[in-house]
Amino acid sequence: MIELEGVPELIDPVMVAAFEGWNDAGDAASTAVAHLDKEWKGEVFAALDAEDYYDFQVNRPTVWMDAGVRKITWPTTRLSVVRVGGEKPRDLVLVRGIEPSMRWRSFCNELLGFAHELGVELVVILGALLGDTPHTRPVPISGTTSDSDLAQRMDLEETKYEGPTGIVGILQEACTHAGVPAVSLWAAVPHYVSQPPNPKATLALLNRLEDLIDVRIPLGELPEDARAWQVGVDQLAAEDSEVAEYVQTLEEARDTAELPEASGEAIAREFERYLRRRDGGGSPQPGGHATADGSDSASYLRDNPGGGRTKPTRPTKPEAEPETETGPEADDEDSAEE
User: Fold this and answer.
1) What angle do CA 295, 98, 291 make, to 5 degrees?
2) pLDDT per position in the chain (338 positions), as tens?
3) Which segments of 259-299 does DSSP mark as H helices, in order?
4) Residue 307, φ and ψ in degrees, nearest 5
5) 129-166: burial string, b at 16+ Cβ within 10 Å, e else
């Protein structure tokens, strides 16, 4: 039995989780949870035992100096709680860590133990994958669940994905079998500029999370960072005619696929978000990543973990005949779930 000391009784708590690794292209998902923790000054109340779940030859501990004393930080998963005020107060339990190397079922059961003890009403797992999406268009965000009733109630896709999966998919299924409502939100990151950070994808995930749980999220410098990122990628892509032509091809495919909708629902969501923010006032590991078809991409290069605005890495040239998925469902719907 998990005993939690020092954690106050929570109000309508939602657990929001993200894990570095295969499910975190461009670090978009883990950065989103880190942003919530920073903006709301989260207080860590638990950390899973690193010895139980991590291979230290894959995820190595780091040594650092604190006032002349050497200390070690072990790779693990930490839980923190943030208290969200406003007209509709709601608390968040933030789970941020690294995809475990082993014992995934025990890992999920331990997280579900915390969720049960804290009275969590909904688990939202954030993820990001590599897809054939242009950086010049809004980031596709898909919301999926294994619960048909929840899918209808929250306007989500009921996942039909089959194939390789990561800890995001395993945790969602564990929640479903335990009777805990669970949703996965996935951002599609352009595969030709997959290096972190990707503030545009992080911002898109937070906007979708805001709509899902009806909580106003302070965005800080993220909108400005997202604009700067896109300008930087525009400039780099313009220097290479092949990359520029490939981006144009992706733009045309994306626009054609979305034309029947006329983006009416997207426009309505943006307008509602604008009204909420206006009325609310105030300031607002080595290895590959999941791709739209469930395969692995090893093009991921970790950037400076210290944060700050980072100049985008030069876009990767597309191959002569790049593999593309047909239709939006292939890159941001069911196949995105895992």
Assistant:
1) 15
2) 466 777 878 999 999 999 999 999 999 999 999 999 999 999 999 999 999 999 999 999 999 999 999 999 999 999 999 988 777 788 999 999 999 999 999 999 999 999 999 999 999 999 999 999 999 999 999 999 998 888 988 889 988 888 889 999 999 999 999 999 999 999 999 999 888 999 999 999 999 999 999 899 999 999 999 999 999 999 988 888 888 899 888 988 888 876 655 455 555 555 565 565 556 544 434 457 887 767 666 433 333 333 445 556 767 766 654 444 433 344 444 444 44
3) 264-280
4) 90, -165
5) bbbbbbbeeebbbbbbbbbeebbeebebbebebeeebb
